[in-house]
Amino acid sequence: MINLTTLTKNIIDTCMAKGADMAKCAASKNEVREFNIDGGKFSLFRTLYNNAVGITVFKDGKKGSMSINRFDDEAIEEAIDACFAAAEAAAPDDAWDLCHEAYTQDVTDGCPVCDTEKLFDRTEELKTAIEKDYPLILMEQMIVDHNGYESVFRTSYGGCFRRVSGSYQVSLMFSAHEGEIASSFCGAGVTVENLDTPFIELGNIRQTLADVEKQIHTEPVEGKFVGTMVLPPDALSEFVGSALGNFVSDGSLIDGTSIWKDALGTKVADERITISSKPHDPRIIGGSFYTADGFVAEDYDIIKNGVLESFMLSLYAANKTGNRRAPNDAWDLVIQNGDTPYDEIIKNIERGIIVGRFSGGSPNSKGDFSGVAKNSFLVENGKITKALRETMINGNLADLFKNVVAISKETLASGGSVLPTIAFGGVTVSGK
Predict the structure, then answer these.
(1) Deepest of 15, 340, 341, 412, by most Cβ within 10 A of its Cβ?
(2) C-beta of residue 208 within 8 angstroms of C-beta of residue 133
């Protein structure tokens, strides 16, 4: 049985003995137990065992990395040599660094051991509930699994983080059918730490199934209008992720393309917008507790009451740009909910669109987006009037943050994020 704490220490010692100025490594052992349902029938049960080692060395301002899936001495030695070879071939960069503090943590959380019998029962229960309550749904694929793991992350400055954890995941892909007519495909999923609740009652699984059944028969939008775009949590995650990637992340700030590069401490959004990265929020399952640079992860606000409080920068990007390092490098996003019930948001919309999914290219550096709204509904005079065929929408991500119409009181905790529904004004919707 491989001891990951010893393994990572030996790797770091070897890297330093070979002449590294700094080094870090991560090693993990995973056991995944997985049930698959394809085309509405159980098709697979399997147990997967995964080993992983990632090693990075820094020498003379150069960085080299290597990842392998073996723990034997020969494979480790070859990986270390490959790291040094990669570093030798790299360009020097003084911005590379690691945390110089020797932080240590040893955490056991979640559910490291799978209850396989109960997992099967919950999976069969979910299959039966969908067939009974949503007869028009064709379950194209259902993957239900448990991921139990041990991981150790270590740096040459003495930092060592060990975690033993586990969680259950449900991932669904489905469409609705009536004769020869079918809806667009859609998905739903959730991550949990226990099997206390039937899967059908978790997350937004019921709501998404019901919506897709209503999307078998669709109609086009007539003409073109500027109206309100309602983003439920899953779609909101896509848009917010794109905005943060464009405006506050490593790449956009290093290359200077972010339109928010000089906006720290200023208002960039409606005052009702608060976006935080909170790996320690109890609603986040398996949130990160250390960073890839060896710091202890802390919760922080990216935008608070509309004001840009922090960029999402790694230590390298912070050194490169002269800005502050983010207190964690996770994307465990929590967006503050509002005080307006979802139904009331809809009642107050004169004309708009509820977007289930968005399909389009990446927004440009200024945040302009254009693409197709899928699994969507038209809202007219405070009512959801019809399911829509694929409809073009376009706008600007930065403008969305300033054009908030309402934020829902309700939130969706999916395990990886906690998000409300947000309605944004000023979005162009184009039909026939």
Answers:
(1) 15
(2) no
- Beta-bridge partner residues of 239: none
Q: Which CATH architecture fits 4-213?
A: 2-Layer Sandwich (3.30)
Cite the beta strand spans of 193-325 per DSSP E: 224-231, 275-277, 300-304, 307-308
Give me the residue label for tokens 């490959």: 82
DSSP assignment of 10-72 equals HHHHHHHHTT-SEEEEEEEEEEEEEEEEETTEEEEEEEEEEEEEEEEEEETTEEEEEEES--S
| 3-state SS assignment for residue 76 | helix
- Report d(CA 62, CA 45) in Å as an integer: 45
Tokens read off for 233: 């949590």
Q: Which residues are CB-contacts of 179 (< 8 A; sequence separation ≥ 6)?
A: none
Q: What pTM did the predictor assign?
A: 0.95
Rounded Cα gap, residues 44 and 311, in angstroms? 44
- Specify the pLDDT at position 432: 67
At position 97, the amino acid (one-letter code) is D
**What integer is the mean pLDDT of 337-355?**
97
13-62 residue pLDDT tens: 999 999 999 999 999 999 999 999 988 889 999 999 999 999 999 999 99
* Amino acid at residue number 356: G
Q: Residue 222: what pLDDT?
A: 86
- By three-state DSSP, how is residue 221 classified? coil
Q: Angle at which helices 205-213 and 116-133 pack, to 10 degrees?
A: 30
Longest dimension (CA), the chain: 71
Domain ranges of the chain: 4-213, 218-432
Q: Which tokens sit at 207?
A: 């709501």
